[in-house]
Specification:
It is an enzyme of class 2 (transferase). The chain contains 18 helices and 24 strands. By secondary structure, it is an alpha/beta fold.
Length: about 525
């Protein structure tokens, strides 16, 4: 099966299906991004989420105020200290979002076959025949026959809580639509999406910029997620955060949500540090039969570029149920086999009834899929894509992975200061964990000394197979006759404590010695 992303060995694999999954310190090498909210903001729940496998906490600013999110973040920090598990912070901006405003908070029943008016006059109350929206240019953006979707929590797709509309008339600032399905809208805010239409709103709104320069700067966020339609959107965001002190270190993840982002994907990928495939939104803009094609193409391009890619909307039903559907379980596995670095959970952890169980279930599915991932096929594709001559760093990274697989190493240990070397190793999708040992660097602004490294360690928490640890700068980078307290020894001890390294195991180490990069194989004694 050399052409398949699956690596199955019959009949061994069939018989092993019934074997129970083995518990592990690392639930899976594929990472899980959890959105924290009403059902997942207590210290106890967050602690359980971290233990279950969440490595990145997402704060969604399309709802809630900064004070609310700050309280949640303080609880996260308490949970990190108690569990001793690193967790990165992702600030997800609201972006150019058109919303239905229901000031009354009363449920609104919409009947199939009746007419509904969308108006920019927010002074009017929302009714079954009229919905105010927060965008004055809607009537200029749409025309008769266009499709409009209104839903909540990034489009759950439920036909009872979201509605499809067809534009039947544009009258001044108002848009009259025919309701295509009966639904009940409950709550104060619903998101409105016009299929395949450009909405003339800035990628970073004034509200977004205020949140970034206050909440983002105060909390040293690791990732900034923003809706990207063009490469210029990413460049504009990078220019903005470059003036905000340490925040310039934050990695920018481009959310691809519509046809515009799809058309400009290649140039967006070149500018962004990573990509989020927002399948909920894409599932509205694209025909359903085309969504999987974009997912596979986007993940492949990100893999070849060595940039992390995150897939969303995988286990929606677990918002209200303890188990995923068969299709969802298969979908998670396919995302892993496609090459995803991380799975992003939205409503499932934000307002879902089972946030911890959802993270645990997704982690177990990812771990099973990783066991049959055809790394050999992927490795050959990646090497062929990079071509020859390889850069020095690419050559070292690919060699480390190939050596680790050939000698059946239990882990790869990579020494890095910027995180780049570790990310390059992860690009070649090793079948074993990579302990990324981040070496702190001393820097000064001529007023005080500071150490770098914390950002770089946390930012690897979204990259598949990377597990960071921050080295003590007082320890030398390799063994010497006069000390047992080397960073390498600490890394090996960490691997042993996690259950990754056992006596007589082989370990591949990638590090710099002077001006040279070295890959070496260590065989451990008792």
């Amino acid at each position: 099966m050399q052409s398949s992303p699956l690596l199955l060995e019959e009949p061994i694999r069939m018989s092993s299906i019934l074997e129970p999954s083995k518990p592990s310190f690392f639930p899976a090498m594929t990472k899980i991004v959890g959105t924290l909210g009403p059902k997942s903001r207590s210290v106890d729940t967050i602690s359980h989420c971290l233990d279950a496998g969440m490595s990145v906490a997402r704060f969604d600013f399309s709802w809630g105020d900064p004070e609310y999110h700050q309280e949640t973040l303080e609880n996260l920090r308490t949970a990190v200290r108690s569990t001793k598990k690193l967790c990165a912070i992702m600030l997800d901006t609201a972006g150019p979002e058109v919303q239905v405003v229901n000031r009354t908070d009363r449920p609104i029943s919409l009947q199939e076959g009746t007419l509904l008016v969308l108006t920019p006059d927010q002074n009017k109350d929302a009714t079954s025949n009229l919905l105010p929206v927060n965008f004055n240019g809607l009537s200029k953006a749409v025309k008769k026959g266009d499709t409009i979707f209104i839903g909540k929590y990034l489009f759950t797709g439920s036909e009872t809580t979201s509605v499809w509309l067809e534009v039947s008339e544009v009258n001044g600032d108002d848009v009259t639509c025919l309701i295509k399905n009966s639904a009940t809208l409950s709550g104060s805010l619903y998101t409105l999406h016009v299929s395949q239409i450009h909405i003339d709103l800035p990628t970073l709104t004034d509200e977004d910029k205020e949140v970034i320069r206050t909440w983002g700067v105060r909390n040293n966020i690791d990732f900034l997620a923003l809706y990207a339609r063009h490469a210029e959107d990413v460049r504009h965001a990078r220019e903005f955060i470059s003036k905000l002190g340490d925040l310039k270190q934050a990695k920018i993840f481009a959310k691809i949500e519509n046809i515009e982002g799809l058309k400009h994907f290649d140039e967006i990928l070149r500018e962004a540090d990573g990509v989020i495939v927002s399948r909920g939104n894409l599932g509205i803009d694209l025909p359903p039969e085309k969504v999987f094609l974009f997912q596979k193409a986007a993940i492949y391009k990100c893999n070849m570029a060595g940039k992390p890619v995150v897939v969303t909307r995988v286990v929606d039903s677990m918002t209200d149920n303890l188990r995923p559907t068969r299709a969802e379980a298969t979908d998670v596995a396919n995302a892993v086999l496609d090459g995803s670095d991380a799975i992003l959970l939205g409503a499932e952890t934000l307002r879902g009834l089972y946030p911890v169980e959802t993270i645990s279930t997704v982690g177990k599915i990812c771990a099973e899929a990783e066991k049959v991932y055809n790394q050999d096929l992927y490795f050959k594709k990646a090497v062929k894509y990079v071509g020859e001559p390889m850069s020095h760093m690419e050559s070292i990274a690919s060699s480390a992975v190939r050596a680790a697989i050939k000698v059946k190493a239990s882990v790869i240990i990579c020494f890095t200061s910027s995180g780049r070397a570790a990310r390059l190793i992860a690009k070649y999708r090793p079948t074993m964990p990579v302990i990324s040992v981040v070496i702190p660097q001393l820097k000064t602004n001529q007023l005080r000394w500071t150490f770098t490294g914390a950002f770089e360690a946390r930012q690897s928490l979204i990259v598949r197979s990377l597990f960071p640890m921050l080295a003590d700068p007082r320890h030398p980078a390799e063994f010497s006759s006069g000390t047992n307290e080397s960073i390498l020894k600490v890394a090996l001890d960490h691997g042993k404590a996690c259950g990754l390294i056992k006596p007589h195991d082989r370990v591949v180490v990638c590090q710099k010695v002077g001006d040279s990069s070295v890959v070496k194989i260590i065989e451990l004694e008792d």
